[in-house]
Write a structure and sequence with these properties.
This protein has 502 residues and is mainly α. The chain is built from 19 helices and no strands.
């Protein structure tokens, strides 16, 4: 993508790529969860959820925050045209990530039995076998994430979408279908997982080689501040992922894999709300870093409100749809999952709250305040763990959902206040009322539609509801008049589409 594109178009174009990748990856992972629930049951779904969470938490330790460090440093080197430093920095990060990943993988494989005996005491014997195989993939996952961070730092989000979303999810989903009919349930969970990490890593290596500048004869030393900058982000990322997965982890510690499997579809469904927001955040972060290096804080303020408006425009109708059709969505997994519909709605509200402050989180980190991000996440994790310890024994899956809602609300408020105090910036504007009004209009039509279609077959109800709800919402949004920058983005996409047709 040309660096001469306006930032609004650059964000929209890369976010659309990220959205496509995240959406496809999310659909495939969602399908994988549905298949496991339908064919293997909630027990094995919970087993997969715990193993996947353990691997992702361990990977945060192993990558040492290097993915976020690369994002900031490479964005600055690219803006300043210091290409020799780009290659040296990427190579240094890969070496460090490979060493730390191997050490963590070996340590966890050797300590699997102790992990089961002391932490996941209610897990079945087969959990130990699954954990060991999953832990073997940690070095590959770390390097894939580090290289994805490098691509993102060079402002190319499509590679990140491919190696972290589309490719592994595709291999995982179709691998399960290929294994299930002749292999054991445990093998059906292990082999596709291994294959997904191997293929994703190979793709990440190939992609970054296409982006790295051509080597010259002058050897460049990587900047000494990379690890120093990245380490605080490692702790912030670690606490962030613990916040994200603490409900699953606490359910695994306090209950059994069946309860975890019952809760997993609700958590996965609610997470779909922030797919687009995550894509926006991915390309927004390096742009903030570049603008900060050029002292263009007024542009950061304008783009922060733009990012928030676009996030609301997608997340708000998604939230309302789950309020109306949450029970139908849970029926995709099986009738027994209707018990977690109230938890799904609480989790969806928590995800909705986060979008109002996600842009502010990137402003904090990319303008040189990673320690504040770490403090925010530490406080939020503490609140989350305490809430889960109190609520899960009393309320089960609903307690886990309420704990997440409380923690995410505190985190969102903290981020908004800090950016307002430090930079005198806030993400709100009167134009953001338009998607809120359009969403309420679509909600009214959806409630009327339910009187006609709600007793139809689940899949047919969801197909009709999606078409009608989204059609009404975007029609109302368009009738309320788009903003000038929104129209420019749509015209850019239309010109691109017309070129494709020609």
């Amino acid at each position: 993508m040309s660096d001469t594109l306006p930032h609004e178009l650059k964000i929209a174009r890369e976010a659309s790529i990220g959205l496509g990748g995240s959406a496809l990856g999310s659909v495939l992972r969602y399908t994988f969860n549905v298949l496991v629930a339908r064919f293997l049951g909630m027990h094995f779904l919970g087993l997969y959820a715990l193993g996947n969470v353990a691997v992702n938490v361990a990977a945060v330790f192993g990558r040492l925050g290097l993915d976020m460090g690369l994002l900031r440093f490479l964005a600055r080197f690219k803006a300043l045209k210091q290409e020799s430093l780009i290659n040296a920095t990427i190579k240094r990060a890969v070496i460090i990530g490979a060493i730390s990943g191997l050490l963590i993988s070996i340590a966890l494989i050797m300590g699997t039995d102790a992990l089961r005996g002391r932490i996941f005491q209610h897990s079945p014997p087969e959990a130990g076998v699954l954990f060991k195989w999953y832990f073997a993939t940690i070095p590959l996952l770390i390097l894939t994430q580090v290289l994805a961070g490098a691509s993102q730092g060079l402002k190319v989000l499509k590679h990140r979408a491919l190696v972290l979303n589309i490719i592994p999810a595709t291999v995982l989903c179709f691998g399960f279908l290929g294994m299930f009919f002749w292999a054991s349930p445990l093998e059906s969970l292990v082999v596709p997982y291994l294959a997904s990490q191997i293929v994703a890593f190979g793709a990440a290596v190939w992609f970054i080689r296409q982006l790295m500048p051509r080597e010259d004869h002058r050897a460049a030393q990587p900047p000494p501040g990379l690890v120093k900058f990245s380490l605080p982000l490692m702790f912030a990322s670690l606490i962030g992922i613990l916040i994200h997965w603490s409900d699953i982890l606490m359910l695994g510690i306090l209950t059994d894999t069946g309860t975890v499997g019952l809760y997993q579809p609700a958590a996965r469904t609610a997470g779909l709300i922030v797919v687009f927001t995550t894509s926006l955040s991915g390309i927004w972060a390096p742009i903030v870093s570049g603008l900060d290096s050029q002292n263009e804080h007024h542009r950061i303020a304008v783009l922060l409100r733009l990012i928030t408006r676009w996030s609301i425009a997608i997340a708000w109708p998604s939230f309302l749809f789950l309020m109306l059709y949450g029970s139908k969505v849970m029926l995709l997994f099986g009738a027994e999952f209707l018990a977690v519909v109230p938890a799904l709605q609480v989790l969806a509200l928590g995800q909705l709250v986060t979008i109002f402050a996600l842009g502010s989180a990137n402003v904090l980190i990319m303008t040189g305040h990673p320690k504040i991000a770490m403090i925010n996440n530490t406080l939020t994790l503490t609140i989350n763990v305490v809430a889960n310890l109190v609520l899960i024994p009393r309320m089960g899956v609903m307690g886990a959902a309420l704990g997440s809602l409380i923690a995410l609300s505190v985190l969102a408020v903290a981020r908004l206040v800090e950016v307002l105090v430090i930079h005198r910036l806030h993400p709100f504007a009167v134009h953001q009322l338009k998607p809120l009004v359009a969403g309420l209009g679509a909600l009214v039509i959806g409630m009327a539609l339910n009187r006609v279609i709600y007793n139809w077959h689940t899949i047919l109800v969801l197909l009709v509801a999606v078409l009608v709800f989204t059609g009404v919402y975007f029609s109302l949004l368009y009738a309320l008049r788009l903003e000038p920058e929104d129209r420019e983005v749509l015209r850019a996409f239309q010109r691109k589409y017309n070129r494709w047709r020609i």
